[in-house]
Amino acid sequence: MANIKPLGQRVLVKRLEAEAISAGGIIVPDTAKEKPQEAEVLSLGTGGKDDNGKAIDFTVKVGDKVLISKYGGTEVKLDGQEVLIINESDILGIVG
């Protein structure tokens, strides 16, 4: 995979595949699936600074599985895969 280094408080993530079968056992076609909200952190940005110039630490780390907002971020094609650059504030939580 080519190398993209996000800037500032941004994070590069890859959406994880959504379930193809519903809880009731119905197979859901690709056209009816919602965008998955679970993603894996691939890369962290360069960081940011608060109003006093102190470095702001990232809450997540590379490899974390996270929940992201549905429509946040910017989609980018990288070596044929769709990845997303989002602000760390668009990460809702860490899974597991």
In short:
By secondary structure, the chain is mainly beta.
Superfamily at the CATH H level? Answer: GroES chaperonin
- Largest sheet, order of strands side by side? 6-7-1-2-5-8
Rg calculated over all Cα atoms: 15 Å
What percentage of the residues does DSSP assign to strands (E)?
35-45%
Look at the structure and give the CATH class: Mainly Beta
- Tell me the number of helical segments per DSSP (H or I, 4 or more residues long): 0
Tell me the distance between the termini: 26 Å
Number of strands: 8
Subunit organisation of the chains: single chain
Short descriptors:
single chain, 96 residues, mainly beta, 10 Kd Chaperonin, Protein Cpn10, Chain O, six-stranded antiparallel beta sheet, two-stranded antiparallel sheet, 0% helix
Q: In words, what does this structure look like?
A:
The chain is 0% helix and 39% strand. It is globular. 14% of the residues are buried. Strands 6-7-1-2-5-8 form a six-stranded antiparallel sheet, with no helix packed on it. The protein starts with 9 loop residues before the first strand and ends with a strand. A hairpin with a 2-residue loop joins strand 6 and strand 7. It is an all-beta fold. The protein has one domain: GroES chaperonin (10 Kd Chaperonin, Protein Cpn10, Chain O), CATH 2.30.33.
Task: Present the secondary structure layout.
Blueprint: E1 10-15, E2 38-44, E3 48-49, E4 55-56, E5 65-68, E6 74-78, E7 81-87, E8 91-94
Antiparallel strand pairs: 1-2, 1-7, 2-5, 3-4, 5-8, 6-7
